[in-house]
C-alpha cells in the first residue's frame, strides 16, 4: 500500500487572510477541490476517520494529518507524498535533502511570510529591513523581540540579514496584538492582503519578505528512488495536476473563415493575428451543399486563447475574416511530456 497526501488537517494560519482567522478547512477544501477537478475521488467512509482512498488509484491510502506532522512523516519516510503549504514545508522540513517538491504551484493558499512592525513610536520612520537591523536599540540585554510560529525560518532569515541580537518567541492566537501589548517589537507571520496588519497598526517593510507560499506537492526523495510504484503514482498525479492547472483560464476558440485553401487560411491566422494557438492553428474544411454539390467555401480554425485576451482575439479573428465564433473553456491540456516530470527525474539524479 502507498501512503499518500496528508493534507486535510492543515494547521490554522494566524490572522492574515481577509477573514482575519482563516480555518484549516479552507486549505483542505481547496485541496479536495483540486483533486476533484483532476478526476480523483477521495473517499472517506466515515467522516471521523483519518484515512481514505482514491477511487482512480489502486493501493493508495490518504491520511489526514496536521501540516507539521505531514512534513515530519515525509522526512522519516512514514508517508510517501503529501500536499502542504510551502511555508510549512520550509519551516518543518528544515531544508532536508530527502524532501523534494514535485509541483511547486498548485494554485491555492497564496500568501507570503513577512516581518511586520508597528507604524508608530520608534518604528514610525523605519521602512526597510536594513533600517530595522541598524537601530542602535538592539543589544544583548535588549534584543529585537520577534513573535512568530516560524522559528526555524525566522532565525535563519534574520541571521542572514545581519541581525545579531534577536529573541524569537511563539504565541497562541493572533500575533498582531503582541506589539501593542508590549510583548514583542515585531511579528513574523503569513500575509495575504495585508488588511489584518493595517487594522492592527502594523506595516510590512522593504526586504522583510522571507518567502512566497502556496500549496505544493511534495514527496520523499529516497522513496521515489527506491520504489518505482510510488514514482508511477507521483507521475500520474503530476500529469493530472499539470493538465488541469495549465488549462485554467484558457479557452478554445472556433471560427469559420472564408478562404481558397487551408494553407491560405492558416497563413492569415499566423500572420494577421496575434493568436496562433499552442503549436499553431488547426484548420479543417467546412462542407456546404450548393445545388446538390458539395463545396468548400469556409474553413474552421481552432485555437487556444487565454481568458484575459479572449475579446481581443475575437476582434482580430473577425478582422481577419472570421465569423460564427464559438468559445468554450478548456478543462485539461496534456503535453507530449509533462515538463515538471522531466524536471523531477533530473532532480532525483542530483
From TrEMBL:
PROSITE patterns reported for this sequence: ATP_P_PHORIBOSYLTR (PS01316)
Cofactor: Mg(2+)
UniProt cross-references to CDD domains, sorted A to Z: PBP2_HisGL3
Protein name: ATP phosphoribosyltransferase
Biological function: Catalyzes the condensation of ATP and 5-phosphoribose 1-diphosphate to form N'-(5'-phosphoribosyl)-ATP (PR-ATP).
Record's GO cellular component terms: chloroplast
PANTHER family: ATP PHOSPHORIBOSYLTRANSFERASE (PTHR21403:SF8), ATP PHOSPHORIBOSYLTRANSFERASE ATP-PRTASE (PTHR21403)
Keywords for the protein's UniProt record, in alphabetical order: Amino-acid biosynthesis, Chloroplast, Glycosyltransferase, Histidine biosynthesis, Plastid, Transferase, Transit peptide
A Pfam family assignment: HisG
Keyword Glycosyltransferase set for record: yes
Homology family: Belongs to the ATP phosphoribosyltransferase family. Long subfamily.
GO biological process, one term: L-histidine biosynthetic process
Xref: InterPro entries: ATP_PRibTrfase_cat (IPR013820), ATP_PRibTrfase_CS (IPR018198), ATP_PRibTrfase_HisG (IPR001348), HisG_C (IPR013115), N-reg_PII-like_a/b (IPR011322), N-reg_PII/ATP_PRibTrfase_C (IPR015867)
Pathway(s) it belongs to: Amino-acid biosynthesis; L-histidine biosynthesis; L-histidine from 5-phospho-alpha-D-ribose 1-diphosphate: step 1/9
Boundaries of every Histidine biosynthesis HisG C-terminal domain copy: 247-331
Catalysed reaction equations from the record: 1-(5-phospho-beta-D-ribosyl)-ATP + diphosphate = 5-phospho-alpha-D-ribose 1-diphosphate + ATP
Cytoplasm keyword on record: no
Residue ranges annotated for the ATP phosphoribosyltransferase catalytic domain, each copy included: 66-234
Localisation: Plastid, Chloroplast
EC number from the UniProt entry: 2.4.2.17
GO molecular function: ATP phosphoribosyltransferase activity; magnesium ion binding
